[in-house]
Every structure is written in structure tokens, then in C-alpha cells.
Amino acid sequence: MQVFKFGGASVKDANGVRNLVKVLNITGYEDTMMVISAMGKTTNALEQVVANYFNNKSELQSSIQDVKKFHNAILLDLFDNEHHPVFKKVTTLFDDLSLFFDRNKLPDYNFVYDQTVGYGELVSTTIVSEYLNTIGIRNNWLDVRDCIKTDSYYRNAHVKWEDTQQQIKRQYKVNTLNITQGFLGSDSNNFTTTLGREGSDYTAAIFAYCLNAQKVTIWKDVDGVLNADPRYFENAQLLNTISYREAIELAFYGASVIHPKTLQPLQRKEIPLCVKSFLNPEQPGTTVCKGKGISPEIPCFIVKKNEVLISLSSLDFSYIVEENISDIFNLLHLYKMKVDVIQNSAISFSVCVDNVYNNLDKLLQHLKAKFKVECYENVSLYTIRHYNDVAIQQIENDKQVLLKQLTPTTMQIVTK
């Protein structure tokens, strides 16, 4: 039994869906769980729908129609018959989305977000499933919300593993191609929850863990895991193998190819994770498995943009001691700040955070009651694993370094 995950880039248009079929024919798909993301940039488009619901209701329906038109173009390219049942199924999904906005009474942004963005995955899997059935590849479509059960921490839900394992084993059909959505789950009230951005990788790992899969393959538009994001760094190199430990380190620091939570359930059962190109499916890609380090052992570069650096110092030159640090972390937790780097001295404390929930102003107001506060927005956090002098110079060149921290294997720099 194997698990495949196809991201949005792999099904961004009709040709992408056809290419997915080629991948399945090359690799085989019997007894396979296939997890599929929203098509192309649909999640971003649905985030705009949410923004319009709260801030610009006159544009709400037109923004929903834009998403529907995008998918209708793909449908018309894939299906010769406009009376095919898939057209009605997709229309019904968009009608359900509009109905939610008509009936919703809760003003909670995070709740509305989760009830909205999941339609991207529901539509994409409906289209792919129906297309595969049409060309003779029979499959079992699953609503992942019936499988993955979570708490109600909207936008970053936590999995209830025992309930999830029972539901997955009940829903999955052996010796069949099963298709489901990434990124989504549901809480005890059957409201949709999401597992965090890029959570489709995590979805694949959840199914692999619960079904004791032989391996997980994540299909990307790159040849595998590279030592740097080619959008930001030149001459990125392919990593052939990565240990679970090293991959978790890279994910923790923000490597975009692997979701931070994906590797933990796989490591517990030593299920290999392969990252391969859907454009070159016969190439070996990268394998994450039991072992040591990386091969080849070269510096790995990670960058996180639009971070916030907060520097605190005591108002009376007293020490920043345990009580102060405890207060600071309680506030970071209260305002849901993701902490990426910390550094402190006797009378100062600096922290680089990701302002995911847009609570920065509230946090700063709270901190200023007790500390002198300096805040730098839109900074970049660079991390180098297995750094050397050349790698450090490459990053620091022509940048203003606001914070720098080194350990024997990792260097982190915050730059303006």
C-alpha cells in the first residue's frame, strides 16, 4: 500500500490532470491513497473571497464566480460532454459555498477561513476523480473530513489520532485507487478544520501512518529536495537522501518542500518519504528515511520572508531573568506568534516571529507596558544548515544584519 500526494502545481490546469494520469500509469496505482491539493492558486483566490466577506461584501459573489470560472475552464477542457455529471457536482459545491456566507452568523475570521478555503480541495478532487472514472481508471472518492478528526483550533487543527485511525480504516478500500483531499479535517461538530498551510503533505503522512503504508511519495514541480529554494538561490543542488532527523531540522527552520509536521508520524513507523518530480516521474528524486545526515553533505539554505524582529530591554536596567522570559513567552502564546529565533543577554531579549494571525499590534501594546520595545517588520530570516565560510559570506553580502546566531551545525541571520 502506498500514498501519493499531488500539490496544486501538479493539477493547475487540464494538462496537469492529464499528466497526473501519465504518472499513475508509470508508477502503478493499485492499493493507493492519493491526496490532492487545490488546483493552482485556488487557495489564494479563496482567501480573497474570505477577505471580501469581511471587508468588501459587494465583491464577494464576483470573487466566488472568478474561482468557479477558473474551474469551469478546466472542466470544459477535460470533458467533451457539458452534460457530464461532474459539471453539476462542481456547481453544487460552489452553491454550498455561497449558501454558507448567506447563513453564517459567526464573525470569527479563522472559523470562516476554514469553512471557505477547503472548497478548493473538494472541487479539485471531484474533477480528478470524475476524469479518471471517465477514462477507465476506477477510484473511490473520500471526503477527508469524514476521515481526519481534529479539535476546533481553526487554521491549525490538531489531529485526534485514535478517532482518525478508526475512520480511515473504515473508509479506505483496499486494492483500489482512493482519492481524497489534503489540508482538511473536521471537528466534533463536523465543521471543517484545516491543518495549516501546506498541510496536504501532513494529510498524506496521516493516511500512511494509519494504513501502515510502504512509502509516501510527494509529487512536486522540482526534482526532489534541493539544498536551497531556487526562487531565491542560484545553483541549487539535489539532495539524494536525508535522514528523518535532518529532514525534521530542515522543516523546522522553514524548508518549503516538506511540511514540519509531516515527518513525525512517518518516522515513528519508519515509512520512507520520497519527493519526486511529476514532470520526470522516472527520476529517483530524494528519499527521506532512517539514517544519518544528508547526501551529499553540502550547506542547506532556507529563507523566511516577512518576519518580525522584536527586541526588548528592561526599563530599569534590571536583568531579563526567568520571570520576565516566562511573561514574554506567555504573551507570544496568547497572541499566537510562531517563534523562529530567540536571543538574550543580561538586559535584553530578541525574538524573530511569524505574525500568522496578525496580532502584532496587540502584542506590542502589551509588551510596552513592561519593556522598552524595538520592532522591525518585513525582515528576512536566513538559516544555513552545515554552513561554511563561503556560505556565510554569500548570505551576509550587501545586507544589514540585525541578529546572528551560530551553533556547530546551524547559523541563523536576521537581515533588513
What would you say this structure looks like, in words?
The strands form three sheets. Strands 3-4-2-1-7-9-10-8-11 form a nine-stranded mixed sheet, sandwiched between helices. Helix 2 (42-55) packs antiparallel against helix 3. The protein has 416 residues and is an alpha/beta fold. Helix 1 (14-27) links the parallel strand 1 and strand 2 (32-36). The chain contains 13 helices and 17 strands. It has helices spanning 14-27, 42-55, 60-78, 85-103, 109-117, 119-134, 161-171, 200-211, 244-253, 263-268, 322-334, 360-367, 389-396, and strands spanning 2-6, 32-36, 139-141, 177-181, 184-186, 192-194, 215-220, 241-243, 273-277, 286-289, 294-295, 300-314, 338-344, 348-354, 371-385, 401-406, 410-415. The mean pLDDT is 95.
Keywords for this entry:
13 helices, 6-stranded antiparallel β-sheet, alpha/beta, single chain, 38% helix
Structural class: alpha/beta
Termini gap = 48 Å
% residues in beta strands: 15-25%
Which whole number gives the mean pLDDT? 95
**Unreliable stretches, pLDDT < 50, 5 or more residues?**
none
Biggest sheet record: 9 strands, mixed
Cα shape: globular
| Adjacency order of strands in the biggest sheet | 3-4-2-1-7-9-10-8-11
Number of strands: 17
Helix content: 25-40%
**Tally of helical segments:** 13
Question: Secondary-structure element sequence?
Answer: EHEHHHHHEHEEEHEEHHEEEEHEEHEHEE
Radius of gyration: 23 Å
Domain Aspartate/glutamate/uridylate kinase: 2-276
EC number: 2.7.2.4
Protein name: Aspartokinase
InterPro entries: AceGlu_kinase-like_sf (IPR036393), ACT-like_dom_sf (IPR045865), Asp/Glu/Uridylate_kinase (IPR001048), Asp_kin_monofn (IPR005260), Asp_kinase (IPR001341), AsparK_Bifunc_asparK/hSer_DH (IPR042199)
